[in-house]
Amino acid sequence: MLSRLARLIIRHRVRVLIGALVVLVASFAYGGQVTSKLSAGGFDNPASASSLATRALDHQFHTGSANVVLLVTARHGTVDDPAVAAAGRALTGRLAATADVEGAVSYWSLDSAPPLRSRDAHQALVLARLTGTDDQVNTRVTHLDPLLGGRDPHIEVALTGQAAVSHQIGTTVRADLARAEAIAIPITLVLLLVVFGSAVAALLPLAVGALAVGGTFAALTVLASLTKVSIFSLNLTTALGLGLAIDYSLFIVNRYREELAGGAEPDDAIVRTMATAGRTVLFSSATVAVSLAALLVFPMFFLRSFAYAGIAVVTVAALGAVVVLPGLLALLGRRVNSLDLRRGVLGLVGRRPRPASAQGFWHRLATGVMHRPLVVAAGVIAVLLVLGAPFTGVRFGQPDDRVLPTAASTRQAAEALRRGFASNESSALSVVAPSSTGSSPGAVSAYAAGLSRLDGVARVDAVTGSFIGGTLARPATPATAARFTNPTGTWLSVVPREGVEPESPAGERLVHAVRALPAPWKVLVGGPSAALVDAKAAVGQRLPWALGIIAGVTLVTLFLLFGSVLVPVKAVVLNLLSLSATFGAMVWVFQEGHGAGLLHFTATGTLDSTTPILMFCIAFGLSMDYEVFLLSRIKEEHDRGSDTISSVALGLERTGRLVTAAAALLAVVFLSFATSGVTFIKVFGLGLTLAVLMDATLIRGLLVPAFMRLAGRANWWAPAPLRRIYDRWGISEGPAVHDGRVTSAIDSLPDVLARAE
Length: 757
Known about the structure:
By secondary structure, this protein is an alpha+beta fold. It has helices at residues 2-11, 13-31, 49-59, 82-97, 134-140, 145-148, 162-196, 199-224, 233-261, 266-293, 301-332, 361-371, 373-388, 409-420, 441-452, 478-483, 505-516, 528-562, 566-591, 596-599, 611-639, 644-673, 679-711, 720-729, 740-743, 752-756; strands at residues 68-74, 101-106, 123-130, 155-160, 396-397, 429-433, 457-462, 465-468, 471-475, 485-486, 489-496, 524-526, 607-608. It has 3 domains: 2-31 and 167-393 and 535-729, no CATH class; 68-160, 2-Layer Sandwich (Alpha-Beta Plaits), CATH 3.30.70; 429-526, no CATH class. It contains 26 helices and 13 strands. The strands form 3 sheets. Strands 6, 7, 8, 9, 10, 11 and 12 form a 7-stranded antiparallel β-sheet that branches. Strand 7 (457-462) and strand 8 form a beta hairpin. The longest helix is centred in the first third of the chain and has 35 residues, at 162-196. The model is unreliable at 344-351 and 733-757 (pLDDT under 50).
């Protein structure tokens, strides 16, 4: 089929390229404003108890947890000085009068409530809630800027809280994305010149990359009109768009030049390239797309958005590689090697492809590994297990202000709250009883008193007053009581004490304790800590499904491609081993804080619960990408009649330089994202860089040759029923070479180790 497609593209090359140019221009014109269509947030499970509590507070009680905190500092004296108090009350009034703000209260409006004053009495808090969806809140928080401006002679004002932090994370990520692109694209172009040695050939992957990014921007714009799509998915779009376009183009262009070097005419070289490298690209893209599609099983639209973006960018990159790129090659013909830079410094690497031989580095490496496969395999596995060991102590959390740089204004204000105040007012849990009509004040007071006695609770506010340590500390006023009740129900605010961070194990323990305390009605517990508990539960429940989808589809796809039982299993196992080492390194660095000063981040003792899942799906897909390229060349040599040692050595020689170059180029793209000021984007960039490089070196260069040598002829074995399925439904480049020894090789597995030696 791909051969017929190639001939069709060759005949209509000009029309294909004109159509591609029109699509490219239209995609950027339509999708150029995609950032304005995308959403912030998306880290919570919308069906969880915490989300239901938040919606009940909003729709039924027209209130909710404070997402805006103004930190007020007295320029002179204390916050109780008359002039400072007057300025504080005026600020509270201006905040309450701001559009879309409700429930504005402060230390001064609540009769000098002690929890809202710092221990040194120089600072006090103003709390409020911005109404609306996550996107509306993200926009409306900028309307509070006038409250921070000017120079009041008595007070200084700083803004923090969930709404302000989320907005600053989004603006920081957008600026980081532009910087990452400015870093990655020039370096990538230079490396492409080094790899190809020809300026014309080096520009081809960038053309496919532009098409992939533009097409995905347009696809995300359409999707954003139908469902919520996270703004953070743009990072994946740019990284994978460039990376996969480079990967696919690198293999196709190199195979085309290889065929030309072997004496083929340009049109024949394109047809043969599409039947071999083009087929491999389609299967590789399918494995990446399936890995990313597994993110759709999770309920958080943050993760689902990466599936949308990933599937779109993989699809467009693959189509660009097998449709647009052959058209460009047909137009260029032998001019693909024009503007040859081999005579200069680039000639060290950028030479034209040459036939694989026993003289090449990768051939010698594979042969050396296969002389001592057990020693090599044991040594590499030991290294990977040591690297992966820290992952056994992973602790998951959710992003807070500390993912921002230390210079970020919202983070500085939040740090001042941690240092100076005895409770976490902005991190209160909301205990909602939406159907508690007729509850007596005594029942409410008894329940509130019980909550206030829980370990980690500083105060409980309810319709009957504020409770501390099991006793009523402050009776409710008519104004405060009205906040906590309506004709159908009531709710209570549970304020954590100092040291109980919302995104911490202590915060999670508090949620479990509150939910375990018997209540006189059915209650829903919300708040930042509750959202973390529910998000982790959702991830834990859906993770087996995601892993099962990835593993199952990968095994089936590789079987249909190679007709082997052992090769797909080996590929999955080795990829899992490699990824566990990557995750262990991320725990050691970002959770435990090793290198925090060098990488400019703050270790909080946790990793974002969604980042490892996202990294796993992307890295697993990319690992299978390289696996398919390598195994395709090995099987090609095997089907020509080569034995295991020869086919593995020749396959690695033909792909080793390309896989390494592709991994290096992709690593540059991912590493540029590690320059981000936002910690979880830094984890994403550095983690994927390590995963790609480890896979291209330790796995492809050492473990794959060692395992294939140990398995010998059993590499290509399948039981008779599966062999019949492969013969009927499998996809191969041509007539496969199957002799009786291959199908019976499994019978000699006890002799495998002896043969290896």
